[in-house]
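Hey, I'm writing a tutorial for new members on how sequence and structure tokens pair up, and I'd like a real worked example in the thread rather than a made-up one. If someone can provide the structure for the chain below, I'll link this post from the tutorial.
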Amino acid sequence: MKTLFCLLVAVSAVIAVPLENVERKYPRFIDFPDGDGVLHKVDLEEEPDMNVLEDVFRNPANNQYLLYTRRNPSNAQTLRINNAGSITSSNFNARVPTVVVVHGWLSNQNTNINPVIRDAYLRKSDVNVIVMDWRRLALSTYPTAVAGVPAVGRGLGQFLNFLSRTTGASLGTMHLVGFSLGAHIVGNAGRELGGRAARVTGLDPAGPLWNLNSNRLRPSDGVYVEAIHTDGGAIGLGIGSAVANADFFPNGGNSQPGCITSLCDHNRAWELFAATVTHDHLVGRRCSNMLQVSTNICTGASLRMGNDILNKSGTGLYRLNTQRRYPF
């Protein structure tokens, strides 16, 4: 009996090691989806395309910034960095919050995440929604896109600084939301802003090539940084480890009810987030460690996941359980 007890304690100790202290080993070749759900074979050891990266580093104007408001809920107005007229002649309202939405790899302004989150916000309240299209880099190879994330994030931060100077909009009224690679982009944007953005949300931040990457999303990237982890398994598409002030692990953070593929698990992060913007109904319980997260025995304080609250606060690991279908 004593031997069995010692074995159980040892196993529990291994399981309870926080994921952020473990280097995840991906195979060299993985399948990673584009914004339409088509899987692409990725060589994680492929050399980045330096021609693309040099262009991205030189020219932050490669990124497009598309404004939607209640006055133009479906027809975008294009805002341009260093072009004040493009902003002052638009429907941008400095008196209301601004939400920036950033897509993932092999995606663009039309990928589902953008209209779904945009529409959830505009139905809920009067806000500026800015969709960033970074397809110039996003349509390159995955290792190239990873290498270019810091530059794209800095470009976004520079644009938001310009937007603030031009309109008087406070960085404290801005919420940056990014999915997959886009989660690390908004982290870098927040860093460029000196951590002054009110809120930064990472939706299943990408995992491959990011576990030990110093350019990944960090807790200091905003006043409040939140991450929602939905596909953090051993070779999941998400990072699976705590990277924010508050890290939520729906259904344990590895697989989601109603999903049979990693792609479905990965996308569930932005689907859950959009649902919480509308309903604000998913509540996590704080966990002491990842063992409690995985075994669903968290009994700590509660914190609502996602939602549209601008001045949100909270720290720690949180577990919650959801349903299979919207609104989950």
